[in-house]
Each structure stands twice: as C-alpha cells, then as structure tokens.
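Researcher: Sequence recovery benchmark, item below. Answer with residues only.
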C-alpha cells in the first residue's frame, strides 16, 4: 500500500491510546489561562481514571451498547457537569440518550438555548463505531478536566452528545431495526431516531453540529478525514460560510495538525486535484443539510474505516484507534470554533432565523428544489424565483403532517377549511422542501399561495 505520513512512535502511542484524555484527580492549573485553546488544554492533561471499554482494550474491541449505558451512568455519577437523560425509545425499545455537559452543571434547555450549544451526533449508522467512541471520550474529557480553559468554556457553552441508532449499533447494521437509513429520514421523521435528533435541534437550538461517520476508502479517495458543510442552496448564506469555515479551518485543521490527511467528502483527488464528485449533494433529508436549513452551523465528518497504510494493515487495533482519534479531533475542532467565535455564532444563527422569516414575509429571494452550493439548477421546475407566501394544506394533509410539522418546529394556522403554513418563519428554506410537489423528497403536494 502507498506510504503516508506516520507520526513518531511515542507521539502516535500517546495520541491514539486515549485521543486526549484527562483526569478527574488532576490538580487545577490556574496558570494555564482560561482563554487558551481547548485542544491545547485537553492535550496537556494526564491520563484518565475512567477509560472507556474501547480504551481499556487499546482499540482491540469496540464498546458495546450495554457497556456504554454502564459507562455513562458512571460518568454521570463522577461529575456534576454531566446529565444523561432518555429522550426517546428505539423500535426495539432501547433508550435514545442525550448526554449534556456544562459547568458547574448543564443548564436547563431554555437557558442553554439562549447561549451557545454544540451538538455531536454520534454514529447514526450503526456499523460506524468510531463516532460513538469519540463522543464517549470527548464527553468524559470535558466532564473531568480541571483545566481553567475547559471550565470557562463549559460555563458559557453546553455540549450535547446523542447516540442516534442503538438498534443498528447492536445489530452492526447501517440502518435501524426497520432497515431505514436514519440519515435519510430528517425530512419525513418517520423513525424514532430521527425524531429524537430533530427534537434536540428544535428545543436546544444548537449553534454548531458535527455529524460523525465513517466511509470506505478506495483509490483517489483515501484520506484519514473527509469533511463537508451543508450544500443545500436554501441555507442562509452567512451560515453556509461559517459551516464551511468550521469544516475546513477548524475540524480539518485540527486533524491535520496531528499529521493526518484530510479531504472534502465526495471529491475524488488525483495528482493533488479534484476530478470527480461522487457524493455530497444538497439533499435536505441528510443531517448536515438539514442543520443548515434549521439555522445551525453544521458539518459532516467521515473517517476511513479500513487500513490506510502497511502498519494499519498489520494491526487492526491501530486502525481502530486512528478512526476514533480522527473523529475525536474533528469534533474538537468544532468546539474550538465555538470557543473562538462564540458571540459571532450566537449572533449569526439568530440573525439567520430573522432573515429567513423576513424573506418569507416579503417574498424575497429564491427557493431552490435542486442544485447545491457549487451547482445552480438549470431546470425551471427546480427553481422558484417568485416565492409563495405559504402553503395551504387540506384537513386530511394536515392531520397526516401535524406530528411531523411539530417535530420540525414549523407553525401553521387555520385557513379555508384547512391549514396555512406561512413561509414567514425561521424554517422558510425548509418548508417548500416538505410541502411542494417539485421537491424530490417532499411529503405532500400542498397548494402554494401567492397571498396569505
């Protein structure tokens, strides 16, 4: 196999054994400074007294779902910064757990939503375990660190983790117990797993979101990390740019600072240049795109799930540790963005919601039913240059969609023996993708209205 950058042996061992673990028993370090980078603060900490099962095995075995439940109970007991709560049940009855971390304790939902919130969705595909492991480690490291920078960060920001597919985890399948790919269900919200994630977005109003995945490497597509921002053309332009900045300048930068390689998800690279895009479109039903439409600065992280060099080929545990470390550090990059640009994120996510509401009220802008940020659709049926003011649902359509609209946080009002869904609300860019006949993944064919 082709050679790639290899860290010095000592550094590799330190980085890959626990990612960047911390100790609950460590003495506070007031001289470190409350404003130093989070990545630096965690990397400088000693080893943890609460290793995950994956760490205990040194990457030889993955943490099982029952082990994770026990581990999170232990973490909840070990730190007042942690709260673990059940926010739903899977098809097979397993708990969908939300882990919140804050200092001195996690804030209530409404209070947290008024400040800054970072959300990590951990392995929505059940056969992609490294995201789950990265989330367990990062939740632990934030909860147990005594570093002043970490404490200061958690006083101002709530960090959330959700393991979004326990049934797939247990079965080692991509989909849930019904075989549904949950990462294609964020519009229809037919699965309990997608509903749980959407309710967290609706209620906690996260400023940033990082969706942790794995991919199968092949020729011209084989970096340690692949990353991507929301590409749907209805996403607020300012949030699109912030998401791309997080993806390229924070998550990717954090990973490559450790000597790993990085690329853009869906782009094949030959001789250093992209030559073909094979994935990474603007589908609103995929979480990174949905996040942007919900006025969240979101991104996708994918780490290679197979050996990338001869050393990894010879040692599966080394491959596993690299997979976790890459996802961990991508997540850490997102946290670094929040630390450095917290006020900007709070301001811009709120402003995006206001801009969308205003555009819906005055009929400005364009509605796109296809295309992506690097491709403008050319079919007239894929673009609405004179946006409707809203959609009328029949009574039957409304009864069908009422729970779905609620989970998205979309409001409606009685009108003409049916319901009016106005575009003058924060989800203005999402509503046509749910209700219009021109939307590839729309749920009903509602009637677009010129006047409301």
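Model:
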């Amino acid at each position: 196999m082709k050679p790639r950058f290899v860290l010095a042996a000592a550094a590799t061992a330190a980085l890959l054994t626990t990612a960047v673990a911390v100790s609950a028993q460590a003495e506070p370090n007031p001289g470190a400074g409350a404003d130093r980078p989070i990545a630096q603060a965690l990397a400088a900490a000693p080893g943890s007294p609460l290793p995950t099962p994956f760490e205990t095995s040194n990457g030889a075995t993955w943490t099982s779902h029952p082990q994770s439940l026990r581990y999170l109970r232990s973490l909840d007991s070990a730190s007042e910064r942690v709260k673990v709560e059940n926010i739903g049940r899977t098809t097979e009855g397993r708990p969908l757990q939300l882990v919140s971390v804050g200092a001195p304790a996690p804030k209530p939902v409404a209070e947290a939503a008024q400040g800054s919130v970072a959300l990590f969705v951990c392995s929505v595909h059940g056969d992609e375990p490294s995201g789950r492991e990265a989330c367990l480690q990062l939740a632990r490291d934030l909860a147990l660190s005594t570093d002043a920078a970490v404490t200061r960060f958690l006083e101002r920001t709530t960090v959330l983790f959700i393991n979004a597919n326990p049934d797939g985890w247990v079965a080692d399948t991509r989909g849930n117990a019904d075989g549904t790919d949950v990462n294609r269900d964020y519009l229809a919200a037919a699965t309990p797993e997608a509903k749980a994630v959407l309710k967290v977005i609706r209620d906690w109003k996260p400023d940033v979101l990082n969706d942790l995945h794995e991919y199968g490497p092949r020729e011209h597509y084989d970096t340690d990390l692949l990353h991507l921002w929301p590409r749907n053309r209805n996403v607020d332009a300012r949030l699109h740019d912030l998401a791309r900045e997080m993806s390229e300048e924070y998550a990717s930068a954090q990973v490559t600072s450790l000597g790993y390689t990085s690329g853009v998800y869906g782009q094949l690279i030959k001789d250093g240049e992209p030559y073909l895009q094979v994935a990474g479109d603007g589908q609103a039903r995929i979480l990174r795109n949905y996040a942007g439409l919900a006025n969240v600065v979101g991104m996708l992280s994918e780490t290679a799930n197979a050996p990338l060099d001869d050393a990894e080929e010879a040692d599966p545990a080394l491959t596993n540790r690299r997979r976790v470390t890459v996802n961990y550090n991508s997540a850490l990059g997102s946290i670094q963005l929040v630390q450095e640009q917290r006020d900007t994120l709070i301001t811009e996510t709120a402003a995006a919601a206001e801009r969308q509401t205003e555009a819906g009220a005055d009929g400005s802008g364009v509605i796109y039913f296809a295309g992506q940020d690097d491709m403008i659709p050319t079919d007239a049926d894929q673009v609405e240059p004179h946006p409707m003011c809203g959609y009328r649902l029949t009574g039957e359509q409304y009864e069908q969609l009422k729970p779905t609209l609620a989970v998205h946080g979309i409001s409606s009002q009685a009108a003409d023996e049916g319901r009016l869904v106005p575009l003058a609300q924060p989800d203005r860019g999402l509503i046509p993708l749910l209700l219009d006949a021109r939307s590839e993944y729309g749920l009903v064919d509602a009637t677009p209205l010129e006047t409301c």
